[in-house]
Request: fold
Amino acid sequence: MDQTRVTAILDLLKKQYPEAKCALEHQNVFQLLVSTMLSAQTTDKRVNMVAPTLYQAYPDAEALSRAKPEEVAEYIRSIGIYRNKSKNIVNMAKALTERFGGEVPDTQDDLESLPGVGRKTANVVLADGFGKQRIAVDTHVFRVSNRIGLAKADTVEKTEKQLMETLPENRWTEAHHLLIFHGRNCCSARNPNCDGCPIAALCEKNGL
Reply:
């Protein structure tokens, strides 16, 4: 896709979703990291419902590192695979405390070295926690970007690479949020609202 069309798509989506930003409520980078880990296979809305009481009980990495997974599980029972997530965030907090003095690191390699932290989670933290330009490819970004023609890939990793090549670097984080909002509000998996889509005329799904 040529850069003129790419820019037009981003500009139209920005006009449609001026409020597009990270939907996970957080007060600091530590909370963002934990909430992002909890958001796998569940909604941001659900995470935001359980997170406040979790952070009240465990306000920092040191406090969470001392917790037992079964204790943490009681705070997040209403989200998907909560037992595994409890183990992951406790182990992550232990590593964070032991290796980084309880402070969330700001590099890709260090973040991905933490238990339970994959590339998508690391990208979210780097983008929304540290202000670095990153593209975190979740289900919405993967579906929408490949459907409209910003990428043509069959894996998350290839999609991220192609988006980094296609999109202007200074708009990576912005594009990530815009594609998520568009996926949630218009370009759904089964019944995309093409008639009401602000970028329908630029979408390759329509044969353009």
About this structure: The two ends are 10 Å apart (CA to CA).
